[in-house]
Write a structure and sequence with these properties.
431 residues; alpha/beta; Rossmann fold; 12 helices; globular
């Protein structure tokens, strides 16, 4: 009798085990996802190609022409881009530099030659944001040269004589006196391994420039704060030369008290929220505007003065703010979440989902010290289990090789090394 009972129990266990093993097998090209719902486990079957996808910080586009890659932006119905308004920010940076020169004209011409000379650190000649910032500075200072209907954004190399074809001498009149404005030198900050936006390269560049024409340098301008701070610490600070960057990184904001000229906040707090919010909405099956333009069930909502949405580009852009000596104390901590969207979502209504997210270069100052810390705060608020992947800033394969099993994830947030390479990622999701 006992043997019969044991045999029956073993058969029951075997049956249950077989049923469990067969539940996620033979999915015919689809992947089974398991998420923590807060009250248990739920399973849904979604093809990788149909999972929500957000491109962020680097918009899919042609690196030569800037033309948007609409194939990548329309990969599926839940694909969007999140970044910032590059042209608006570029104009702000250029205006900030020009305003500083005008307000400090009595002391800014260090050698008294009537020429306001500046040097420019260019991040990546093929990156739309870098192109916009270079153009913005040149337009504001009158040093831009037209090329095919747009301001030339190419590096000028050394231009101490004002004869470079990529730029021209500008002028500014203050107090009845006219000053020449000249881009003395500019170059792409790309290291020997191929990484762009390289701070160390910028630090070396300012060393070379200062040795060659030091007292002619009146202003230092950079496409971002990482390079800007490298130049500031290497030379500008000790020589009292105002340096202007972009990103409003905490160290750059703090340095304004020590002579850093200013920076631009691209509302990273809003960008980071949008990056994950768009995914959250798609995973919940609600309108993409939820918690953005219209309040969600927790009361999170953004005002229209901090972002814009361009439907034809499927892109959300945060708006920029100039950070100067007048307001820098309001920006000392760049990792504080934006208060209007800081409320916790209810896990029972918004169950935990798993997200794969990469940063193109783990050493990028803005992304590593500002953007990712913000993402890590918002992922908790939005009930998202995010796996963060840091790239080497050089090759796409360094990132894509670590997306070997996309079926593990419910959604993806991608920051490419090069804006042309969206297909490297979508090809993996189409398999």
């Amino acid at each position: 009798m006992k043997k019969k009972i044991v045999a029956i129990m073993m058969m029951a266990v075997l049956a249950l085990s077989t049923a469990a093993c067969g539940a996620d097998g033979g999915n015919s090209g689809k992947d089974t996802q398991t998420g923590n719902t807060g009250g248990g486990t739920s399973t849904s079957t979604v093809a990788n190609k149909d999972k929500p996808l957000v491109w962020f910080n680097r918009q899919p586009s042609n690196s030569s022409t800037g033309e948007l890659d609409m194939t990548a932006l329309n990969f599926n119905k839940d694909t969007y881009y999140v970044g910032f308004d590059a042209n608006q920010g570029a104009e702000l940076q250029g205006t900030m530099v020009k305003d500083y020169i005008e307000k400090n004209i009595d002391k800014i011409d260090r050698n008294g030659d009537g020429v306001i000379g500046y040097v420019l650190a260019i991040g990546d000649i093929g990156h739309n944001d870098s192109i916009a910032r270079t153009r913005g500075v040149r337009k504001a200072l009158g040093t831009a040269v037209d090329k095919n209907g747009e301001a030339d954004s190419a590096p000028a190399g050394t231009n101490t004589d004002g004869k470079a074809s990529q730029v021209q001498d500008g002028s500014i009149e203050v107090g009845g006196k006219t000053y020449v404005i000249r881009e003395l030198a500019s170059q792409e900050m790309k290291n020997s391994a191929g990484a762009t936006w390289d701070a160390a390269t910028a630090g070396n560049a300012i060393g070379t420039w200062s040795s060659s024409f030091g007292d002619s340098i009146d202003v230092v301008v950079s496409n971002n704060d990482g390079m800007g701070m490298s130049m500031f610490n290497a030379w500008s600070k000790d020589n009292g030369v105002p340096t202007f960057g972009y990103d409003a990184n905490s160290d750059a904001v703090a340095a304004i008290a020590e002579g850093y000229g200013g920076t631009i906040s691209q509302h990273a707090d809003v960008q980071a929220y949008l990056t994950l919010r768009v995914l959250r909405n798609a995973l919940d099956g609600v309108d993409v505007d939820t918690g953005i333009g219209t309040a969600d069930d927790a009361g999170n909502v953004l005002s229209n003065d901090v972002y814009v949405y361009k439907e034809d580009e499927r892109s959300y852009y945060s708006l920029n703010v100039a950070v100067t000596s007048d307001n820098y104390k309001d920006f000392t901590d760049s990792t504080v979440v934006w208060e209007p969207v800081s409320k916790q979502l209810d896990a029972s209504a918004h169950p935990t989902k798993k997200v794969w997210l990469n940063i193109y270069n783990a050493s990028d100052n803005f992304l590593s010290s500002t953007y990712q810390p913000l993402l890590q705060k918002y992922d908790d608020l939005l009930n998202l289990d995010v796996e963060y992947i840091g790239g080497d800033g050089q090759t796409e394969s360094n990132i894509t090789n670590r997306l070997g099993n996309p079926g593990q994830y419910d959604a993806f947030a991608i920051n490419m090394v090069k804006t042309d390479n969206a297909a490297s990622y979508t090809a993996l999701l189409n398999q």
